[in-house]
Write a sequence for this structure.
């Protein structure tokens, strides 16, 4: 960790934050059986899984949970070039007519979410799409607004938000690193 | 650090040796994702929107041309097919002029199939865009070898250290050459089997074992690849008759008894039933012939994505 790194979410805070987000999801969606969670690869996937676990505890409903890869839908393929490490989109439930909640770790420019919405539309026609993000760091470049926000963190454009999750990184922690 | 993908941009795919083992594994990973796309109701991703791909085919083809076309379209590229019979080639235009004229229309990639070995390499030197070898004479057919690797990988879970046999007209087969190179890159032990007249001189220099006995060839192999007799490329009789050839080299149910119970039977097509492969074997449970065709689309999507996805720096 660099000297400039600042912790913005501890493991304990992350757990409480996700629990609150799950409650907000149930408030907005009284019938949880109509929800499908889609985690955006990579770190959106374990976050979606955790929200599903919390929704099960709150409502007793097993909310289906899948993964969404947006590699082939990105708008920066031209500048960044092809990526041969695409993950697998795996949403086995029929999403037609359902409320699909996109889950991601950090919302920044909004471009990933634009790509994710397009990717979803190519696998079905959900009744509505909602967006849940653990962190909103601002600097939007597209008209995208999340429905559920874990924490708003003001950042400078050049700063880096590092999200660590126990499933992918061995610990739960969010830090902001200086530019 | 230079990534695999960055190195690849603006390059050509003329032969397997143009790729590293890491790049091939990346292509396999990507091709599986594109296979998923082909199984959806909306079989299309916007990845190569605005790109133009030209299929320039100087030899007949069903699978390769169609699968490059479908692959390009499923990536949202515009695909144009040029076959020599309906183009100015029939008016005497040279290969060079045809390539230069197509290149002047600014495509992002040209897929070239030609009877002469080296034609795609020549096109690559003059075209100013990516060139993909769609099969050149008896030289190379790299996308076929890649889709074959994918087919093996899907069944075996690995492409490392396999024991493979390639049986049939090795002499005229670009598929054999590309597959030998690809399989050996991953440590395979490859045996080729054919009558002596259908083996190229110095075939052992490719690092393969040679046998003339199909039973010996298929015994103990993970993979058996059958090849068609390319009568259209034969000027003189290299064997007495097709019937006699099939007596000795046809993969029949009887021959298959010498093989392992988990053997994979492959064939790049078109198959000649009853000549190099018996109908019941081609349609049988070990046969992956149609799965190879399915993987052809997915793998060619991966190759096009790698070559056309991203501007040259």
């Amino acid at each position: 960790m660099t000297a400039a790194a600042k912790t913005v979410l501890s493991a304990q805070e992350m757990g409480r934050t996700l629990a609150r987000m799950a409650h907000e999801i149930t408030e907005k969606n009284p019938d949880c059986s109509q929800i499908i969670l889609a985690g955006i690869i990579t770190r959106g996937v374990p976050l979606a899984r955790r929200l599903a676990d919390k929704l099960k505890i709150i409502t007793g409903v097993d909310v289906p949970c899948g993964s969404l890869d947006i590699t082939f839908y990105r708008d920066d393929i031209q500048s960044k070039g092809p990526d041969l490490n695409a993950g697998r989109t795996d949403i086995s439930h029929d999403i037609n007519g359902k409320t699909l909640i996109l889950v991601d770790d950090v919302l920044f420019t909004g471009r990933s979410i634009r790509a994710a919405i397009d990717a979803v539309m190519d696998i079905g026609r959900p009744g509505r799409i909602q967006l849940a993000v653990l962190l909103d760091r601002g600097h939007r470049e597209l008209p995208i607004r999340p429905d559920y926000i874990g924490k708003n963190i003001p950042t400078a454009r050049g700063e880096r938000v590092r999200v660590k999750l126990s499933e992918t990184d061995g610990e739960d922690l969010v830090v902001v690193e200086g530019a | 650090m230079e990534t695999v993908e960055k190195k690849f941009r603006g390059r050509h795919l003329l032969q397997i040796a143009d790729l590293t083992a890491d790049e091939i594994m990346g292509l396999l990973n990507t091709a599986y994702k594109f296979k998923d796309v082909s199984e959806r109701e909306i079989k299309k991703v916007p990845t190569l929107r605005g790109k133009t791909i030209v299929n320039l085919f100087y030899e007949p083809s069903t699978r390769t041309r169609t699968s490059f076309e479908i692959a390009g379209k499923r990536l949202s590229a515009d695909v144009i097919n040029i076959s020599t019979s309906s183009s100015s080639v029939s008016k005497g235009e040279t290969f060079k002029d045809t390539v230069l004229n197509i290149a002047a229309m600014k495509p992002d990639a040209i897929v070239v199939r030609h009877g002469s070995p080296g034609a795609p390499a020549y096109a690559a030197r003059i075209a100013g865009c990516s060139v993909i070898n769609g099969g050149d004479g008896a030289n190379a057919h790299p996308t076929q070898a890649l889709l074959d690797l994918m087919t093996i990988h899907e069944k075996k879970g690995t492409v490392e250290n396999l024991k493979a046999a390639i049986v049939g007209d090795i002499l005229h087969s670009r598929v054999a050459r590309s597959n030998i190179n690809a399989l050996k890159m991953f440590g395979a032990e490859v045996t080729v089997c054919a009558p002596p007249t259908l083996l190229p001189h110095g075939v052992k220099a490719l690092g393969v074992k040679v046998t003339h006995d199909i039973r010996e060839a298929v015994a103990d192999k993970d993979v058996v690849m059958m090849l068609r007799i390319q009568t259209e490329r034969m000027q003189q009789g290299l064997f007495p008759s097709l019937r006699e050839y099939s007596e000795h080299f046809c993969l029949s149910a009887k021959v298959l008894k010498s093989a392992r119970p988990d053997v994979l039977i492959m064939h790049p097509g078109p198959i000649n039933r009853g000549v190099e492969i018996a109908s019941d074997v081609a349609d049988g449970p070990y046969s992956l012939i149609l799965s190879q065709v399915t993987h052809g689309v997915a793998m060619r999507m991966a190759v096009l994505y790698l070559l056309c996805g991203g501007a040259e720096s």
